[in-house]
Amino acid sequence: MSDYDLLVRAGRVFCAASGFDGPGAVAVKGDRIVALGTEVEGTARETLDFPDDLLLPGLVDMHAHPARGGSRYGVDPDAHLLPRGVTTVLSQGDAGARNWAAYRDEVVDSCRTRVRMALNLSAAGESGSNRCFEFLEDIDVDACAEVAASDPAIWGIAVVTLQGPCGDLDPRMIFARALAAGERAGKPLLVGTRMHADWPLDEQLEELRPGDVVTYCFHALAENMLVEGKVRDSVWKARDRGVLFDVGHGMKSFSYPVVEAAIAEGFYPDTVSTDQYNSHVGSQPQHDLPRTISKIIAAGLPEKEAFARATARPAELLGLAGEVGTLAVGACADLAVLQFNEAALPLCDVQENERPGGCWEPLLTVRAGAICADHR
Q: Is the Cβ–Cβ distance between 309 and 292 less than 8 Å?
């Protein structure tokens, strides 16, 4: 009889949560990690060797759009995220109070990928062809707060005050309602700020509370985090106050000049995320979390910091530390093996600026002890 169900060895094993970094192995029994180290002894029902590759905890994407219908932006996480090394993902507002029950049944409870929700302030979520804040009656503070407080799968509340979602409605009113819902539910906000001169970023940041998360933090549109090439004082003050900053790459929100200027000043994002949604399906190169990690490393973020911000740090923010984002004994056996491809397609930001450096690409995903994807 084997000691383990699965034994995975790699030339480099990195776990920010436990501090392990070097050649080693992870042993799995059932859905739990039972050994981590340089010399893991014992036999296994299945042994996998990756002598030239990197073994990480399953990646945690703090901002994407997992859905199976019901969201205009949604992608099936088991088809488009899990095979790319992401074992845990936070939905940025794909459902609201009105359709949360259906989303929970169809996505949270049915997918192999672990899914958590930042509930849309709009009761309709992203379920229709209209703007999510098209109708004032959908911006229901009581309904949002009640549902958000009722379910542990709901991490917080999502609000985006861009012109597209808000239309002709006052973004200040929408944001005030999101804050009210967050206060009533006792939940943080995941905020897409207003990227337009009609509402200064300095004023928006003053409204945020400790634990609230600003996503799209490295966009280069109006009211971005830089003034004259330097990180705004209001951004530093918000961070000192406990406001958090997430990458949220997407189609418009990752600019090398902004990222590089921020990192050069020592301003690191708290979490590295993709904002991956259906427009990315079939993209060449494929937009995913390993590529986003590679881009921010190319922009100057130290490699270990980048890995931590896609594993241990988002797991901590989601309240999953010790279970997710770690290779420690006793944690859920979520693993991602990545290979470094020197010949990968260029690392481009949303303005097609390129940076050299090669790219991390997914080789293997293990979710709760079971192999979900093997690209060898």
A: no
- Give pLDDT, residue 130: 74
How high is the pLDDT of residue 354? 96
Residues of the chain with pLDDT under 70: none
pLDDT confidence of residue 132: 86
> Rounded to the nearest 5 degrees, what angle is found at the Cα of 212, between the Cα atoms of 350 and 295?
25
Q: Of all helices (H) and strands (E), which one includes residue 60?
A: strand 59-64
Q: Distance of alpha carbon 322 from its chain centroid, rounded? A: 18
Q: Pull the structure tokens for residue 298.
A: 């190319």
**Which CATH architecture does the domain made up of 4-57+329-341+357-374 adopt?**
Roll (2.30)
Whole-number pLDDT of residue 168: 83
Q: For residues 352 and 348, give the distance between their C-alpha atoms in angstroms, rounded to a whole number.
A: 5
Looking at domain 59-317, its CATH architecture is Alpha-Beta Barrel (3.20)
CA distance 199 to 207: 12
Closest CA to 139 of 100, 95, 184, 97: 97
C-alpha closest to that of 335 among 289, 371, 309: 371
Tell me the C-alpha distance between 217 and 62, whole Å.
Answer: 13
Q: Which pair of tokens denotes residue 314? A: 């988002």
Confidence at residue 357, expressed as pLDDT on a 0 to 100 scale: 81
CA angle at residue 129 from 128 to 132, to 5 degrees?
Answer: 65
Picking from 68, 113, 120, the residue whose alpha carbon sits closest to that of residue 92 is 120
**Alpha-carbon dihedral angle through residues 337, 362, 252, 116, given to the nearest 10 degrees:** -60
pLDDT at position 340: 98
In this predicted structure, what is the pLDDT of residue 281? Answer: 95
Residue 271, by phi and psi: left (phi above 0), alpha (psi -120 to 50) or beta? Answer: beta
Structural domain boundaries in the chain: 4-57+329-341+357-374, 59-317
